[in-house]
Specification:
This protein is an alpha/beta fold. Helix content is 28%, strand content 16%. The chain is globular.
Length: 271
């Protein structure tokens, strides 16, 4: 699957809308968080299709391309059950976290192009290190909140939320190579959009912590605008906090985006 991260309201009360006119693009050609080939070429494909030049044609938008994260890292053998390519996932996300923080400190909105959704660890971690009051909107057919003990695949692209939230920190074993990432983000600042393939453990976590979540059938009933407004009202009633949007292409119906590695029908019921 291909994912895009967009930090859309990275501003303090003193900042103005004009501050959001500066954008920083980050490419992450990474696919070791899952088992299929393809998503690593997405940043190059989008640049080749003219993404950067198109953005620069938008009146008043200042665009800077920060290039791609270097993902050519030699895999280190680590002893963690049911977590494929952990050392490579960790190395990529560490670099990505640092790059996201740099973009934000430069006063720009960070737009990150993946890559599989394991890169959500780096984008959220990098944002949190700059804005600890941030909220996270996870737009995805999947909740991505499995641990290595509950995952059916061992692919880290189904675990980034669980790695990030402090409430689940005690459910993980020691993760070699991941010492750089300390889970400090609270699940109370998380909201889901477009869910429709949720594992049993994930559903339990969502219900236990009362995470606001809109499945696709909810969106069809209430509309996307009201769905997002509800989540924002729950997470940020005063509308002051920075927002991090993590968008997975499989949130779109498989009929519209058939090339995603994890296609899910729009009307598929929760599992």
């Amino acid at each position: 699957m291909n994912s895009v991260k967009l930090i859309i309201r990275n501003m303090s009360q003193a900042r103005t809308w004009e501050a959001l006119r500066s954008v920083g693009i980050i490419g992450v050609p990474f696919e070791k968080g899952q088992k299929k080939y393809g998503v690593s070429i997405a940043p190059a494909a989008m640049r080749s299709a003219g993404l950067i030049n198109h953005l620069k044609t938008i009146d008043g938008l200042d665009v800077k391309d920060y290039g791609d994260i270097d993902t050519m890292t030699t895999e280190v053998e680590v002893n963690v059950d049911n977590m494929s390519h952990l050392s490579q996932v960790s190395a990529c996300n560490k670099k990505l976290s640092e790059r996201v923080s740099q973009v934000l400190k430069d006063g720009r909105v960070a737009v990150t192009i993946g890559g599989d959704h394991s890169i959500g660890v780096g984008t959220v971690d990098g944002h949190y290190k700059v804005n600890e009051d941030m909220i996270l909107i996870w737009v995805d057919a999947h909740a991505d909140i499995n641990t290595n003990k509950t995952s059916g695949s061992g692919s880290v692209h189904g675990m980034p939320v669980a790695l990030l939230v402090k409430e689940l920190a005690d459910y993980w074993p020691y993760l070699p190579t991941m010492d750089w990432q300390v889970p400090k983000f609270s699940i109370k600042n998380l909201g889901y959009i477009a869910l429709r393939s949720v594992d049993e453990y994930e559903r339990l976590a969502i219900e236990k912590y009362e995470v606001p979540a809109f499945a696709m059938e909810d969106i069809e009933e209430y509309g996307i605008k009201k769905s997002i407004q509800h989540i924002l009202k729950v997470l940020d009633p005063e509308m002051k906090k920075p927002i991090h949007v993590s968008f997975d292409i499989d949130s779109i119906d498989a009929l519209e985006a058939p090339s995603t590695g994890t296609p899910v029908s729009r009307r598929r019921s929760r599992e």
